[in-house]
DNA sequence: CGGTCGGTTGATTGACCAGTCAATCGGGAA
DNA sequence: TTCCCGATTGACTGGTCAATCAACCGACCG
């Protein structure tokens, strides 16, 4: 939430935010200096603090900005009555996986530095993270009510497994330096949905 | 790897290691001081460095000790010819989940401070972490070969989703302060195996 | 042309902490 | 009893960095 600003200063703010994402992705939040961000953005050290409250605040903003988009997609998938459960889940998975394809640095930062940081940022944003689980759980629950899915697995459990599955897949892409290809990403979505819905038992 | 020691000194070493687990679990690896560990163990600061190379080294040892047990269980589950896939997967899941039941601090540290720390310890131990994925993948692969599971989902993918699912369940137990009950744990195992093998589609 | 006020600069401050080290202790061997 | 050596102590060093702040710049207004 910048104070009222000119277009030029808004751009500079954005430049710092983008630079921060690159630096966080490359060095990790804990192992980079604020001066690295300033250097990467090509501005003076102090300017970072003109636009942001603190180093933590920058990461918070990166996370919240991205996570809000995902929550929107989940709501959208849950609300669209024309979709099957598989389509709904595929829509969410596709958004996450394609976010990684288009903005690997942002997604790496969101997952590695926030979502998986149980003691620091993960705890701070736990309620927000849970909003996503809750949204997924609602998708499952409704499908159970309509008979589209079996009713004997708790929806919140299914949601956690589904989300945990995606996160682990992204994590493995992030760790192994080879980037995912578009085909990898499409395959991951359909395999995930097929595993969770269809199960691994023989057809 | 302590140098040759008397029984008494081995005990003291153990006491420091146990104290470290408690401190890491409570404050987080990055937000505790080595002096916290020394205080918790009731020994002088310097003694920690008599028994361990560094603060990092302590965490490494906590992780490796526990992870080795898990790898053993995975090997055991993979090797026991009398077991069905579901039993094999349940055996692994039960071990993990019951480890949490018996040693919540240790498991919290292993997961929160190592396994999920993609930029620091997670990367350092990535190969070891992958050993677990590989073991699970082998279980799936063999079951596919015997026709016990469908063959069109890559085993390594299934393994990652399975492991990611457990980890996310444990994470949610860790974040929400309410401890898991024995019933929660049993239910988690059977729900996980049932979700992954049977799928969420109606029976 | 003087004044104002964001925007911009980077040196400095203050706090934090891992790891070192020289000194001391104490139990068993000679 | 003396000596030796591992065990034990905790003060201290060196380095790191987030955040502050006082000063400077320059565009626009009156």
Task: List the topology elements.
Two copies of one chain form a homodimer.
Chain A: H1 7-27, H2 34-41, H3 45-51, H4 55-79, H5 85-102, H6 104-115, H7 121-124, H8 126-145, H9 155-175, H10 182-198
Helix pairs in contact in A: 1-2, 1-6, 2-3, 4-5, 4-6, 4-8, 5-6, 5-10, 6-9, 8-9, 9-10
Chain B binds a DNA duplex (30 and 30 nucleotides) through residues 3, 5-6, 8-9, 12, 33-35, 38, 43-47, 49-50, 54-55.
Measured on Cα atoms, how large is the radius of gyration of chain A?
19 Å
Our measurement of the CA-to-CA distance between the termini of chain A, rounded to an integer number of angstroms, reads 52 Å
Low-confidence spans of chain A:
none
Per DSSP, what share of the residues of chain A sits in E-state strands of 2 or more residues? Answer: under 5%
Looking at the structure, the CATH topology of the largest domain in chain A is Tetracycline Repressor, domain 2
Residues in helix, % of chain A: over 70%
Number of helices of chain A: 10
Tell me, rounded to a whole number, the average pLDDT of chain A: 94
What string, H for helix and E for strand, traces the elements of chain A in order?
HHHHHHHHHH
> Could you tell me the number of beta strands of chain A?
0
Principal-axis shape of chain A equals elongated
Q: Name the CATH architecture of the largest domain in chain A.
A: Orthogonal Bundle
Structural class of chain A: mainly alpha
Largest sheet of chain A: none
Question: What's the CATH C level of the largest domain in chain A?
Answer: Mainly Alpha
Overall domain count of chain A: 2
- CATH superfamily of the largest domain in chain A, by name, is Tetracycline Repressor, domain 2
Largest interface: chains, residues each: A-B, 54 and 54 residues
Quaternary form: homodimer
């Amino acid at each position: 939430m910048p104070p009222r600003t000119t277009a030029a200063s808004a751009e500079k703010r954005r430049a710092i935010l983008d630079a921060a994402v690159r630096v966080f992705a490359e060095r990790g939040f804990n192992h980079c200096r604020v001066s690295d961000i300033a250097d990467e953005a090509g501005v003076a050290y102090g300017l970072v603090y003109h636009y942001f409250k603190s180093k933590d605040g920058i990461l918070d903003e990166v996370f919240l900005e991205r996570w809000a988009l995902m929550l929107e997609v989940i709501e959208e998938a849950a609300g669209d009555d024309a979709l099957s459960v598989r389509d709904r889940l595929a829509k969410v998975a596709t958004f996450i996986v394609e976010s990684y394809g288009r903005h690997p640095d942002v997604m790496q930062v969101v997952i590695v530095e926030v979502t998986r940081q149980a003691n620091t940022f993960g705890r701070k944003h736990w309620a927000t993270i849970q909003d996503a689980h809750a949204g997924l759980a609602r998708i499952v629950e409704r499908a159970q009510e309509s008979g589209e899915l079996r009713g004997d697995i708790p929806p919140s459990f299914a949601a956690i497994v589904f989300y945990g599955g995606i996160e682990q897949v992204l994590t493995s892409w992030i760790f192994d330096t080879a980037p995912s290809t578009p085909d990898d990403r499409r395959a991951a979505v359909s395999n995930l949905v097929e595993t969770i819905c269809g199960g691994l038992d023989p057809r």
